[in-house]
């Protein structure tokens, strides 16, 4: 558990982090990327952190890999690369830096460490987990193998390194159907997301059997709510993430990974869009798409929201919270993740 008073006292020894209107004004080009969703008063609070982090990144030859669910001040203010899980994993294989700070949850930092073991990988908050990653262990994978002998195991990247090591290949929401279809066997085991697996089964030629995990953010949406929303506002375009239930996906105009969703909104520019996923998604693209009105509701991921500018600055300053993966586990997990990356590149994904 992070000791926040200690963290703040440590930062105060080196940095002046008081709200600063003049500094905020001097960083206008960065603020313009988020001024539709971040107030001038909040920007004056964030600006000293953004400047300190960007200065320290250069000093330490560090990069920040920011997931699409990061808040706008992290996404636009300090991230060097942003994207969905697949894009961030691919970036981790070839990024030119000594240190990676993961703007995302723990399984993403583990994936970066597995793919770039020579780099230092820092997690701003080790408690930023994921309900899917917590739902299965390597023993669970072994149980599934015993139940379906000979069937390959395709594990979502939202898993621990141990689960990846026990699997045959990984997938993300942007390549799951293609990865499952590329398996030789007629039956494919998917872990740990039951809803992603059911959505894949609806699009795949394979028989998909699955572990019963779920995402606490996406499972909250219901088809009834979406139908009611569409009835009250027929022009709204509903865009869902495949971690939602198949009933929700059936109500959507488009379903895709977080970057798939962003690309769809950019290409289609609907007058009104409801992103059936995590709240920061709409905030991060609001300024790029002034013609699109983003409709609520959205749900927050409590794990992603543990990442803040303050914690990023702290780990970059202290080099605390280094992510380590046991070498033997990492070597096996690397095979599963690398197979996914190689297949995705081959398929042009
Ligand atoms: P993406 O791979 O689509 O970015 O999804 C990651 C995630 O955790 C969604 O909840
Ligand atoms: Fe995990 Fe769901 Fe949060 Fe994504 S949104 S990190 S799947 S809990």
Plain-language structure description:
The protein has 349 residues and is an alpha/beta fold. The protein has 3 domains: 4-129 and 303-318, 3-Layer(aba) Sandwich (Rossmann fold); 133-214 and 325-346, Rossmann fold (3-Layer(aba) Sandwich), CATH 3.40.50; 218-295, Rossmann fold. It has helices at residues 4-14, 21-26, 28-31, 40-60, 72-75, 85-94, 106-115, 138-147, 161-165, 176-182, 194-201, 223-232, 246-251, 258-268, 280-285, 309-318, 327-346; strands spanning 62-67, 81-83, 99-103, 120-122, 153-156, 169-171, 187-191, 207-210, 237-240, 254-255, 272-276, 293-294. The protein has a 4-stranded parallel β-sheet, sandwiched between helices. It has a 4-stranded parallel β-sheet with strand order 6-5-7-8, with helices on both faces. The protein has a 4-stranded parallel β-sheet with strand order 10-9-11-12. The longest helix is centred in the N-terminal third of the chain and has 21 residues, at 40-60. The mean pLDDT is 97. The site of iron/sulfur cluster (SF4) has 13 residues, from loops.
């Amino acid at each position: 558990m992070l000791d926040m008073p200690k963290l703040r006292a440590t930062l105060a020894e080196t940095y002046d982090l008081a709200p600063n209107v003049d500094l905020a004004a001097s960083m206008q080009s960065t603020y313009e990327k988020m001024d539709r969703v971040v107030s001038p008063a909040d920007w004056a609070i964030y600006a000293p952190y953004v400047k300190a982090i960007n200065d320290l990144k250069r000093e330490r030859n560090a990069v920040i890999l920011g997931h699409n669910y990061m808040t706008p001040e992290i996404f636009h203010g300090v991230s060097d690369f942003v994207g969905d899980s697949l894009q961030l994993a691919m970036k981790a294989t070839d990024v030119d830096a000594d240190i990676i700070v993961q703007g995302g949850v723990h399984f993403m930092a583990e994936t970066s460490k597995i793919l770039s073991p020579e780099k230092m990988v820092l997690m701003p908050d080790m408690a930023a987990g994921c309900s899917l990653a917590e739902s299965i262990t390597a023993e669970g994978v072994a149980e599934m193998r015993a139940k379906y002998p000979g069937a390959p195991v395709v594990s979502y990247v939202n898993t621990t390194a141990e689960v990846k090591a026990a699997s045959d290949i990984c997938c993300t929401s942007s390549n799951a159907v293609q990865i499952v279809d590329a398996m030789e066997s007629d039956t494919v085991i998917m872990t740990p997301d039951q809803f992603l697996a059911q959505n894949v089964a609806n699009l795949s030629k394979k028989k998909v059997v699955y572990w019963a995990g779920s995402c606490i953010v996406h499972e909250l949406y219901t088809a009834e709510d979406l139908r009611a929303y569409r009835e009250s506002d027929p022009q709204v375009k509903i865009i869902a993430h495949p971690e939602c239930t198949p009933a929700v996906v059936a109500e959507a105009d488009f379903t895709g990974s977080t970057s798939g969703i962003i690309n769809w909104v950019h290409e289609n520019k609907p007058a009104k869009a409801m992103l059936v996923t995590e709240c920061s998604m709409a905030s991060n693209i609001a300024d790029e798409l002034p013609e699109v009105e983003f409709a609520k509701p959205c749900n927050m991921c409590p794990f992603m929201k543990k990442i803040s500018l303050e914690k990023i600055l702290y780990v970059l300053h202290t080099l605390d919270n280094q992510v380590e993966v046991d070498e033997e586990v990492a070597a096996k997990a690397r095979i599963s993740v690398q197979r996914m990356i190689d297949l995705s590149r081959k398929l042009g994904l």
